[in-house]
Amino acid sequence: MTAVVRTEGLTKFYGRRRGLENLDLEIQPGEVFGYLGPNGAGKTTTIRLLLDVIRPTSGRAEILGLDPRDSRVRARIGYLPGELALEGREKARAYLEFMAGVRGGLRRGRIEELAERLEADLSVRMGELSKGNKQKIGLIQAFMHDPELLILDEPTSGLDPLVQQEFLAMVREVKRDGRSVLMSSHVLAEVEHVSDRVGIVRSGRLVAVEDVGALRERAIRKVEFHFDGPIPREAFENLPGVRDLVVEGAALRCTIDGRPDALIKAAAQFTVVHMVSAEPDLEEIFLAYYSDEEARHAHAGA
Amino acid sequence: MPTLVRKTLNDYRRALVGWTVGVSAFFLLYLSIYGSIAENPDFYEKAATAKYPGALKDLMGGLADMTSGPGYLQVIAYQLFGPLLLIMCAAVLGNRAIAGPEESGTLELTLTLPIGRRRLVVERFAALALGLLGIAVVTFVLIAGMAAVQDMNVPIGHIVAAHTGLFLLVLFFATLALAVGAASGSKALTLSVTGAYAVAGYVVETLGKSVDAISWLRWVSPFHYFLDGRPIYTGWPVGDYLVLLGASAVLLLVAVLAFDRRDVGV
After folding, report:
1. Other beta carbons less than 10 A from residue A138's beta carbon
2. Is it true that domain A220-277 has CATH number 3.30.565.10?
3. What is the pLDDT of residue A283?
4. Domain spanning A5-209, CATH class
5. Three-state secondary-structure class, residue A222
6. C-alpha atoms less than 13 angstroms from C-alpha of B171 in its C-beta half-sphere
7. Mind listing the pLDDT tens digit for each residue in A104-139?
8. B192 CA to chain A: closest CA distance, Å?
9. pLDDT of B173 over the 80 cut
């Protein structure tokens, strides 16, 4: 299958300032790709290059198998800009209908359906929409024509938690249909529950691409067991992946690195009264990536 | 009508209505006093000459026979005020074609529609031209009506010729604003280039007639190709109008090519 997004050595300099350097990225059909990085790292630059709003300094990009400069490809893409600007006296509905008209092929009632899901009011003039409501209109126009590829730049900014949940449900539906999503964020928590893979960009460079499932599997998590009576420490020593083991009477605390299988099987010999397992904090893993990268750069510079 | 042309015209609607009403009110007010001027030609001739001495009179196009029908129409509608008002309108609307939406950020979503960059500029231009044509038609009907009602003795053919020239002049400046906006994306630059060229062009054309040092510059003034043929007196200066039209075509081409090759919104 052809990748929906493929870049080779994609590079963008704004004068002498680096926006993005040497990006090699492939996103497969049906994949949700989380694109992470701090503000100013190059996420928006990448996205605007893919949409032909700006042109690369060098390297190339392909989107749905075509050159981004081919305007026809854009009918098959839904795009939400990071800094969405909607203004004027025009009603939101009229604007959405204009966009639908240009793209063509919209199901009847589709705009209303999405507006209802996101609780957006289409009768408001665009210049009078609040930040959150603008974002909703932006999401509607990105999703309404059921595009093969959605490119969403910081999609959840300004949305309240309930609408965020609805948005994530919409992303899952897109994925279920075998369509693809590229969404950026500066916080992992926003994308980790829907993304298959995440890429981390920093100072214009892609520093890592990871499978979310694998990351979670590899994540270090703290576990606590409480038993109905004192347990022997020996039963838990030298279990694969178990570290920082502390046994105090009927309680056991440790961290596990990877699968908890061996620990669970060992604990199963005794009567477990209570168990606590903290959700693995992927954010921490990413911060580790960042600081590694930083350390490497600092080292190289020294 | 292509969707983007319709959409752009829709965005321009309020401005178009406003400018049409304003410019029409101006023409209506000043043309309606022609009756009293025609009754006291000597008085008004002297008053005008006293009010605008020397070079100022040149700037007003000479004011040679402002008490005759054609002379009065020329002074009010076609010499300074008509072009001035309509070029301001053209610059404002031309600025809203690319530079305005680019600075406010709304152009980004438009660009990501399945419309090529070149087509976007051409459709914006079409909307701009149609909008200005609308104002031109309304003001033409008004002026022709006023001229007929007040027996101004101007052949309708000459009014058509003069008004066509006015439209072509205004279209030139609208296309200039579009081109500067398309090439630079800057509202301030667009307005200042368009405004400066309009003022300089007018001054050069009017004062250049008596100041030899700048008279050669008249060739690069768009006003030369509208005013010099005196259409209200003599009818169609076809060659001059073709120059205006050709210059607009070149500017449109520049706008299309410039916008097609640059980064937007950086």
Report:
1. 23
2. no
3. 65
4. alpha beta
5. strand
6. 30
7. 878 889 999 999 999 999 999 999 999 999 999 999
8. 24
9. yes
Whether residue A218 has pLDDT greater than 50: yes
Complex prediction ipTM: 0.87
Q: What tens digit of pLDDT does each residue of A67-98 get?
A: 999 999 999 999 999 999 999 999 999 999 99
**Nearest CA among A70, A51, A71, A39 for reference residue A10:** A51
Contacts of B214 (CB under 8 A, 6+ apart): B204, B207, B208
pLDDT tens-digit map of B97-140: 999 999 999 999 999 999 999 999 999 999 999 999 999 999 99
Q: What residues of A are in contact with residue B264 (Cβ under 8 Å)?
A: 53-54
CA angle A124, A130, A135 (to 5 degrees): 95
92-131 in B: which are within 8 Å (CB) of A? 104-106, 108-109, 111-117, 119
Q: How many CB atoms lie within 10 A of CB B50?
A: 8
Domain residue spans in chain A? Answer: 5-209, 220-277
In this complex, do B111 and A101 lie within 8 Å of one another by their Cβ atoms? no
Structure tokens of B17? 């209505």
Q: What whole-number distance in Å separates Cα of residue B150 and Cα of residue A227?
A: 107
Tell me which chain A residues have a C-beta less than 8 angstroms from the C-beta of B5: none
Sheet with A149-153, edge to edge strand ranges: A77-80, A149-153, A180-185, A32-36, A197-202, A205-211
For chain A, the first-to-last Cα distance in angstroms comes to 45
